[in-house]
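Lab meeting notes turned into a lecture example. A postdoc, R.K., suggested we walk through two folding results consecutively so the class can see how the record format repeats. The first protein's sequence and structure tokens come next.
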Amino acid sequence: MDFGIFAVLAQDGVTNGAVYALLAMALVLVFSVTRIIFLPQGEFIGFGALTVAALQSSQFPKLIWLLIGIGVLTFLVELGSALRQRRYKPLPRRLLMWSVIENLIYPQFIWLLAHSLDWQGMPMAVQILFTLAITVPLGIMIYRVAFQPMAEASVLVLLIVSVGVHFAMLGMGLFIFGPEGSTTRAFTEWSTSLGEMPVSGQSVVVMAVAGSLIGLLYLFFDRTLYGKALRATAVNRKGAQLVGIGTSQAGRMAFGLAAGLGTLAGTLIAPLNTVGYDTGFVVALKGFVAAIVGGLASYPLAAAGALLVGLLESYSSYWASAYKEVIVFTLIIPVLAWRSLTSGHGDEE
């Protein structure tokens, strides 16, 4: 291996690590706020990439049908909850009306936009924003239907529910998109070289977008009221409830952010690789390994773990390409062993 090959592998590892960092932070966010290991994170990678690919080929984004269907289901869940609790006061009625707008009218509006505009000729940034307008509410609805009713359950029960949601979304992805994968057009055709190392403009865009999102997440959690409310919920769920922070709203916000980060990760890797409905699961698992390095609690350690995973994967593909996945996932064993030996053991929380 000469310096040129070393530099190319490093660039590839850092690029992949930047994507894994987004997924790792999404997993840490969801777990710290809701105690849910968000296995369906990978499905949003495939859903986002395939939706952008459909828009670029002048096809109707079929994910909207899933948004409409889950929107109806979410409204029925909200209605059933209101009837069970006999919510006939003015404020709950207004909340129920907001549920109609959010779960029934909004998906129809998205359907109308998809039919009314020529999305193929739109800039890629607009296509990605429209895709986010589909996937972010979808993540919030999934939390409301599948997880919020049992938010106080044990971590094991929540993990079992997460596995069920993952397989359900995997099946719906196959039904909606089919088994074929797709790619999207590149963000840029620009490229240059630094000495012997070629620099791809696509890699620069991926690292720049990932770095910007990490910075925005830091500002969100450190400078905004909603971000501080999420942090408070993560530190002490019961204490947050006692001071008036809505933990259900915090859970919905966490799932919406996680769905958005997964979608963005999918759009970042789609110009580099063919993405299918099930491609995101393996990618999300690598983000999960990075999140485990951070103890499912630390955002900086999760980002550092993501870079480690990306570099390890890149160099493993050169030295032992047949075993690169095994090498990457084996990283979780010494990390868990070290944490088991050095961390104090307490209750489930």
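The second example is placed directly after the first for contrast:
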Amino acid sequence: MWIQSTMVTYGPHAGVIETLSWVMFTGALLIFLLVMVLATLAIFAPDRMRGWMTGRNFIIGLGIVFPVVTLTALLVWGLTISRTLVTVENPALRIEVIGERWWWRVHYVDAEGQIRLVSANEIKIPTGRPIEFVLKTQDVIHSFWVPSLAGKLDMIPGRVNVTRFSAERPGIYRGQCAEYCGAQHALMAFYVVALTPDEFETWYAREATPPAEPVIPLLVRGKVLFRENGCGACHTVRGTSAGGLIGPDLTYVGARLSIAAGTYPTNVGTLAGWISSAQHLKPDNLMPSFGNLQGEELRAIAAYLESLK
């Protein structure tokens, strides 16, 4: 389920798109083969075998009636099946996703639009329930796409787009920005993690609370260094003095599958590498490289962040 493919579907919306795609592909292939057969006959067949192709009935039937009937039927069927993509039932959960340079800010909001939970680059949802995604952008055009669950929808400056879809079974589904948005567009991915409803409620309740205070000396040292090096100016860790809003919320970063918007798996090594060489690993992103930190300091900060889970 880590495969990012429109042909590996685990949601009703993606299933409709897959069916529509296969019918269109098959229809296009059959028409292409028909045209190639007729073209071959027209070029290579003897005159006595292709004379019927110049008749009035052939031209009107295959040149006018057939395309009109076929394309009209496909259009009507396509519009009919596409109506199922519009979910009319009330969403079980509303999530606001904001595209930034080059990562995803995630807000879990209530019916009044109040933010209840903040995350980044990873979206957890309950299975079998319609989820409403409110899509915005902080800068340029991005495009929100989880091919195994639903179609893509653009995030346009000055506009708010809304889409709804659900996941049929628990799993991890990779998403991607599908609109070129700058130098690191290819490294702007995210994950949708579908949990059973009970697992989701447990996660949601725990995620709303601050992480436990570190007690291991290395982690305590990492938390101090995190604060002393000004990380809290850009990042938030709930329950601490770190309250920055420029970068991703790091409250439970250690529990996420990846860092840097799906670029690297989350572990102490990648966290340390990212802190020291963010501009080398993902040039032009808004995270500066902290090359001034020594190895021991990097390990302490990375271990502290990895413990936030």
